[in-house]
Amino acid sequence: MEECSTIHDAAANAANQTILKVSAYWCDFAKNLFTWENLFKFIGTAVILVVTGVIFVFVKRAIKKIPEKRLSIHHSMLIRKLVNYIFYIIVLIQILALFGVKLSALWGAAGIAGVALGFAAQTSVSNLISGIFVLGDKAMKVGDVIVVNGITGIVDSIGLLSIKIHTLDNQMVRIPNSVIINSNFQNNSFFPIRRFLFEVSVAYSTDMEKALEVLLSVPATCSTALTVPEPKAWFDGFLDSGIKMTLAVWCKTSDLIPTKNSIYMGIKKAFDAAGIEIPFNRMDVTIRN
Q1: Using only C-alpha atoms, what is the Rg of the chain?
Q2: Under DSSP, is residue 194 helix (H, G, I), strand (E, B) or coil?
Q3: Which residues are within 8 A (CB) of 273 and not within 5 positions of it... i.e. 6 or more apart?
Q4: CA dist 205 to 95, 106, 187, Å?
Q5: Can you tell me the mean pLDDT for 261-286?
Q6: How confident is the model at residue 134 (pLDDT cuts 50, 70, 90)?
Q7: What is the DSSP string of 75-106?
Q8: Which pLDDT score, from 0 to 100, does residue 112 have?
Q9: What is the pTM of this model?
Q10: Separation CA 39–CA 33 (nearest Å)
Q11: Secondary structure of 197-243 in the HEC alphabet?
């Protein structure tokens, strides 16, 4: 019983000493932390961050109000992102300075880490450099319909590392900028107007001059088809079942789908009215008992 009591007392004394040491440590830490000097540092840092935050909010709003004619949407988004990054860096520097971290040592460590990350992130560096060329090339803007490697979509954002688009069936696709630079890139919205080719075939028994005249009359029935440049029609070869014809119609890029629907329906109606046959493959089926 005496041995158990001695062990119990020793454990209690050890626990009390540990608690006293921890309490003393935190008391000393609190005394050193909550001093007038640190209070003034904290207030000064808070004032700097508040003033900096107000300035950056004002700058971002001013950038956002710049007309699109002077600053495109994607350039405006990029500049606002850079402003955010600069603000975060200033906040980080102020907080580190508040806790007495020397920036010279931080810059030295950042340089070593930057070299190591440069070797480990060659792909990101390639995308970053490509992003600068993409932004400088001005080959697209937010809202354009583009085609890259067989993927068609509408541009949502243009960044330094990648662009984001959503496909026509509303799927988000992220495309690295290096892919944009190193592959065939098509922008269907770059110019305000575009041409579309309508292909149709007529029977070999058709009067070719009449067919050409009827086909050229179709664009006049479409309200979205442009007269300048004027529509063109031509024969484009002899097929197995008919003579191939092509009609070229210009329209506004935004009117492409209504124009396609109207012209296709107009061709069918005009050919039917003129008695011109559009040949198609037929299959005879014989049923035997």
Answers
A1: 36
A2: strand
A3: none
A4: 86, 85, 41
A5: 88
A6: confident
A7: HHHHHHHHHHHHHHHHHHHHHHHHTT--HHHH
A8: 55
A9: 0.57
A10: 9
A11: EEEEEECCCCCHHHHHHHHHHHHHHCCCECCCCCCEEEEEEECCCCE
CA 179, 182, 186, 187 dihedral sign is positive
SS3 153: strand
Q: At what angle do helices 122-137 and 73-98 cross, to 10 degrees?
A: 140
State both tokens at 94.
């102020």
Write down the residue that tokens 């060659």 correspond to.
Answer: 122
Cα–Cα distance for residue pair 222/258, rounded to 1 Å: 9
How confident is the model over 175-193, as pLDDT tens digits? 988 888 888 889 998 899 9
Say how many C-beta atoms besides its own lie within 10 A of residue 259's C-beta. Answer: 22
The C-alpha atoms of residue 257 and residue 224 are separated, in whole angstroms, by 10
Exposure of 49 by Cβ count < 10 A (0-12 exposed, 13-18 middle, 19+ buried)? middle
Q: How confident is the model at residue 133 (pLDDT cuts 50, 70, 90)?
A: confident
Token reading at 275: 């008695």
Q: What percent of the chain has pLDDT over 70?
A: 69
Tokens describing residue 5: 């009591």
pLDDT cut 90: percent of the chain above it: 36
The type of residue at 197 is L
